[in-house]
Specification:
Layout (H helix, E strand, L loop, with lengths): L6 E6 L16 E7 L5 H13 L13 H10 L7 H20 L4 E5 L5 H4 L2 H4 L3 E6 L2 H12 L6 E6 L17 E5 L9 H13 L7 E7 L4 H7 L6 H17 L8 E8 L4 E8 L3 E5 L2 E5 L4 E8 L3 H10 L3 E7 L5 E7 L1
Parallel strand pairs: 2-5, 3-4, 3-6, 4-5, 6-7
Antiparallel strand pairs: 1-2, 7-14, 8-9, 9-12, 10-11, 13-14
Helix pairs in contact: 2-9
Bound molecules: N,N-dimethyl-L-histidine (AVI).
């Protein structure tokens, strides 16, 4: 049980459904948000400093997502080149009934990285979850999403957990020991190194308290290299802006003096590693103040900002089995550009 001060409760009345309905006519809905985010800000900044001063400089991808970075990410998914989000949505739309039959109705629905909860909400009709648990690092996104869902008369019981599961996944403070569907769409599993991805899946499996529990997950596939390159280096330069914006965010957090104009975006598929790599490359020799240090960058030197691993369907089925899941089922679009898996505990 989380300490009391980490829990906030909301009790709201959904908006009237017609001009004549009054708030009294509709039952109030309430939800609880638990916060276990032990964000040690100083330790995070110390680690960021070390990664910038390392011989092979890097910036962890979580620093992409300040307000502008999140807006740019929402724009990336609209570019013609970035196929994963719309392809996953098309698979869900086409195969929703079949997938829902495999999962079975009435389960607790745990949404890992819930964001605006829009993807999850589309499953409420077919799955009739017993309750919906939104899990996200952003308290404001989670609060906004649950307030919106509380106005949906078809929404199940609602709960939220603010936590950073990129290191350790612990949803036990909000989980009930009952059949549970874990939902991890969007191919974010690809942003983990393969050993971390396996560890993350094992942690989900460890939260499965009954054999009726399972995982529904979206995974990007290997494909033509030119298409992969284009998806992470779009013609409009949206992904470039998203990548470069991390320097502005780091300046704000750490007081560094990166000049965005000194850097250029590099995003390409590395077939030997089965991953997209994103880097920021110095356009010319430059130096940057990092707290009390000066970091010299040679012309062409790179800062590694993200990996996005791609998995063939058979490969990812094996990873799911290795993590302790059974009977993985896979749905793909006709071109095989994206995979959706459901695997039972
Ligand atoms: C969040 N994640 C699944 C995206 C991806 O495709 O790896 C992040 C991204 N980076 C650049 N474009 C999209």
């Amino acid at each position: 049980m989380a300490p009391k001060h980490l829990i906030t409760s909301h009790r709201i009345a959904p908006p009237p459904t017609s001009a004549t309905a009054s708030a009294d006519a509709t039952p109030a809905m309430s939800f609880t948000i638990t916060n276990t985010l032990k964000l040690d800000a100083q330790a995070e900044l110390d680690a960021l400093e070390r990664s910038l001063l390392a011989p092979a400089a890097s910036i962890p991808p979580k620093f992409f997502y300040d307000a502008l970075g999140s807006t740019l990410y929402n724009a990336i998914v609209l570019t013609p080149e970035y196929y994963p989000t719309r392809t996953e949505a098309a698979i869900f739309a086409r195969d929703r009934n079949d997938i829902a039959r495999q999962i079975g109705g009435g389960k607790q629905f745990v949404d890992l990285g819930s964001g605006d909860s829009v993807k999850a909400e589309l499953w409420f009709g077919g799955l009739r979850p017993s309750r919906y648990v939104a899990v996200d690092i952003s308290g404001s996104a989670l609060n906004d999403a649950l307030l919106r869902l509380a106005g949906n008369p078809d929404a199940p019981e609602l709960a939220g957990l603010i936590t950073d599961f990129s290191r350790v996944l612990d949803v036990s403070p909000v989980l009930r020991r009952e059949p549970t569907l874990f939902f991890y769409p969007g191919s974010s599993i690809g942003n983990f190194m393969p050993d971390e991805a396996l560890w993350f899946l094992k942690q989900i499996r460890a939260h499965c308290s009954t054999p009726e529990c399972g995982l529904l997950i979206g995974v990007d596939t290997k494909k033509d290299h030119a298409r992969l390159d284009a998806a992470y280096d779009d013609a409009l330069g949206v992904t470039a802006a998203f990548n470069l914006n991390v320097l502005r965010h780091v300046n704000a957090l750490l007081g560094t003096n990166f000049d965005v104009r000194d850097w250029q975006h590099r995003g390409f598929y590395n077939p030997a590693m089965s991953r997209i790599e994103m880097h920021l490359e110095a356009r010319h020799a430059t130096q940057v103040r990092v707290r009390g240090h000066v970091r010299h960058f040679a012309s062409g030197e790179r800062i590694h900002t993200e990996n996005s691993y791609k998995y063939a369907p058979q490969e990812f089925s094996s990873v799911l089995r290795e993590a302790g899941f059974t009977d993985p089922r896979c749905w793909q679009d006709d071109a095989g550009d994206f995979s959706v898996f459901y695997a039972r505990a």
